[in-house]
Amino acid sequence: MRSLPLPLALTARLAPVAVLATAGWALSSGPDTTPAATDRTPPDTPERSASAPAAQAETRTYTAAPAPCESLAGKTVASLVPGAKAAGKEIPSTDTRARRTCSWNALEEYDYRWLDVSFEVMASDDAARKSYGDRVADRSGGGEVPGLGDAAYSVVDLTTEDQQQTREGTVLVRAANALVVVTYNGSDFESKQAPGTDEINTGAIKAAKEAVAALEEGRG
User: Dihedral of CA 138/106/167/9: which sign?
Assistant: First the structure.
């Protein structure tokens, strides 16, 4: 196998690091402690219970991101990224409970493949829903993926640099208060062509389905 230089677009990848902010709220109320109020209950007003909570925080389905490098089966990694180590490489994160990403990449003969799986856990379903909607709006030309999470979207793009084509597929999935993001791309350095759209899109969706299953099972 001949060693070939990778195009700039594939050697200068940056791992995204997201810092997720959580917001809380507080409600304060207290009973009327004036003498006139201590001996009576206002008409048509239920008595307050001292044990009742002032406010109830929204229950989060997911509280931590699973181990991303354990989210895909070894045979899946081998089929999507031939020659890559099944263990993958986890990208450093500022908050591993909120965001974790694993990458696999390999060059076999003239074929190059790169796969990222990322989990992002947010403070609420609403926060995840908004983030999902914003990201989908930034990616035109794709379509919904039925039966995956609460909402899923896939899109495939083709880029050319120094006459070398690269085709990249992205799958975004929202599951309750978590997002799963899969990026899968490839290039053929002999022909200068890229893998077909169906190959990249099908591979990205396959990885996304396994990643969502790992999230739901709480792996890691």
Answer: positive
